Amino acid sequence: WAGYFTSRPTLKYFERTASSLLQTFKQLTASPTKRVRALRAEIDHVLFQLTAAVGLVNHHDAITGTSKQHVADDYVKILAKAVTSAEALIGKVYGTSLLPQDHTESDKYTKDVPVLPTVFTMCRLYNESVCTATQSLQAGETAVVAVYNPLPRARTQQVTLPLNTHARVSVFSVGETALVTSDLLANQNQVSAESAPYSLVFSAQNVPALGSAVFLVRLADKSTASQTDAPAVLKAEKVPVEAGPHLTVSSDQVSVTFNSATGLLESITRLDVTGAEGKPLTAQVSQDFAYYKSFGSPGIGNTATLKDTRDPHLKNIQPLRDADSVNNQPGGAYLMRSATPEEVPTRLAAEKKVDLSVVRGRGLSEVHQQFSDYASQVVRVRDGSPVVELEWTVGPVPINDGIGKEVISKFTSNLRTGEKGRSKCFTDSNGREFMERVFNYRPTWDLEVYEPIAGNYYPLTAAMYIQDTTHDQQLAVLTDRSQGGASLKSGEMELLIHRRLVVDDNRGVEEALNETTGGMSHYPDWIRSGDGITVTGKHYLLLSSVSDGLKEVRTLMDELYLPLVPLFSAEPSTVKHFEALATTAAAAAGSAENKVNQADKTTVLGLELPVNVHLLTLEARSNKELLVRLAHQFAVGEDATLSAPVSVDLFQLLQAWEPVSAQETTLSANQLKSEQLAGKIQWPTEASASTRTTPAVASLTAEGKAEVKKGTQLRGAANAAGSFVVELNPMQ
């Protein structure tokens, strides 16, 4: 039952981005400013709508991709409506937090505090290079781009803006009062008619925790088109055969080499990590696309099962003999099953060379690969990051041969990760602890193997990795959505990224998993139209030493789940305000150090959290109460330093809200922890440390009317006036 780990990959991606948006929405709308508090009724309405939609799409027949097509379409419709409302309100909240108002912070709080109209917008279709706010810019115009950091620590990340014009463009940091280096790239593969032909890429440096950095993006007019500080358009240039046996691109931290004869990735080198013999850490790593033929497809002559018309639940409890047969069970939305148990996947590139093109910019480099007429990839390295980013595009997957296809991205390395027949990998358990997975083995029972391919696939919420402890190497792949993954041989990892099938697996969906661009007609016809969908996604390849591997993986997991959130405004009044702010800041800055510190003043937190502590939730339950969840991100033994218990001063963290008390609740925050424990059945078990994440509800001052409650101490103590220390153990 491994197919649903990947089924409906676009829905899985939408759920992931909506879940991330939900946390960002909670943070921004928990602002202690009176201007945001004045929006509480509207905030509560939209928050309920988005929370309900995200919760609905996490239903076991939604996120799994095992619903009928028209039901999946309805899930998307509900989620899209909620996301649209949240994006609009985020723009309003962010605008009221940044721009000047007709009142001051010292004014008495009332429900009638005036707020500005929406001044910032968001762009949902970044993965398609679509953003109306930036694509509408014309030569001579300026836009404000604000990037919000939802992580509880400062971070640096490159930002990409879709543009419709190749006019010279410059990026100015308001906080640092300086021009920012940028690259303007021509988009080679536009996935839709609305996709921008160009992308502007620049780095947002040291964006503060739960804070923002603001940039002015200016498109030059004809009179300034020759300015030397603006980038020229970079286009991918095809790599000729005579260029040599290898193609290498590098950033300041990582280098990747391709074999010019095959067009495939060949090796990765960490320039900032020392490996054997004092040389940079290097691993031989290849990546390719292939597909398994789905069992039961008419095109391969498998005998499919008889159609079972009974109730879906009864099918699973009492399967028909034919449907339960090892020989006849087809693949479908639930089940992944290869044509034969030992099938060798078919390469998408067949025996052809993969075409290569290269782009070398000032802050990033790209290698474009064309595997077939329906599969391409951009391999990207960025300055300031050790990650190799692989942006793949697959589809429409052809099925005119009558064969359903399970498309995989396969990584092959020289890491020794287990004896023959006992390869080992690690996969995350719902984004928390990593579980050891051994080929054809289960730790709690004797496994009888029927399907050595599908039977060794596991669900990946965030990542999987392999380790070679002998050579101090770890290779990890992180995902942008839930997928299935396996390690079938030593040194290998493969991830199932797209599925297009032609028969049902008789497990309740009662239609083939065959998503098409035209969708499906309404009852009673249920007829599909259009070609198969095209899916674009990203894998993040990270080579590390074993000692630092989990530190780097867990840090990257947080950064991928909560990326920088760009917001845009081209309104003249907004642009004028930030241009004036930049001028004032530049005049007031007496040194380069002062310039850099301008951006550090925008964080709302009283302290930054270390990399092993995550701020899971920061939500205003009312204008007088916050819901706060903290989590220790490391398991026992994952890191020599970061797996240790860590203490956090909760009141110092939340000092902007002026907290007066805190109470420990259950994880769902609907019952006090003390009440829950009092009513809990006490089973006779050995004492063990709790591994649950425990939220706290902090009462806030509100015009001096907040009631001070005697809350239970959160496994910590109030060790000084105005201080409340919380201690978190690994995975707590």
Automatic annotation (TrEMBL):
PANTHER family: ALPHA-MANNOSIDASE, LYSOSOMAL ALPHA-MANNOSIDASE. Gene3D superfamilies: 2.60.40.1360, Glycoside hydrolase family 38, central domain, Golgi alpha-mannosidase II, Golgi alpha-mannosidase II, domain 4. GO terms for cellular component: lysosome. Keywords: Disulfide bond, Hydrolase, Metal-binding. GO terms for biological process: mannose metabolic process. The lineage of its organism: Eukaryota, Sar, Stramenopiles, Ochrophyta, Chrysophyceae. Signal peptide: none annotated. This is Glycoside hydrolase family 38 central domain-containing protein. Residues 1-79 form the Glycoside hydrolase family 38 central domain. It comes from the Eukaryota. InterPro entries: Gal_mutarotase_sf_dom, Glyco_hydro_38_C, Glyco_hydro_38_cen, Glyco_hydro_38_cen_sf, Glyco_hydro_57/38_cen_sf, Glyco_hydro_b, Glycosyl_Hydrlase_38. It holds the Pfam family Alpha-mann_mid. The keyword Hydrolase applies. SMART domains: Alpha-mann_mid. One of its GO terms (molecular function) is metal ion binding.
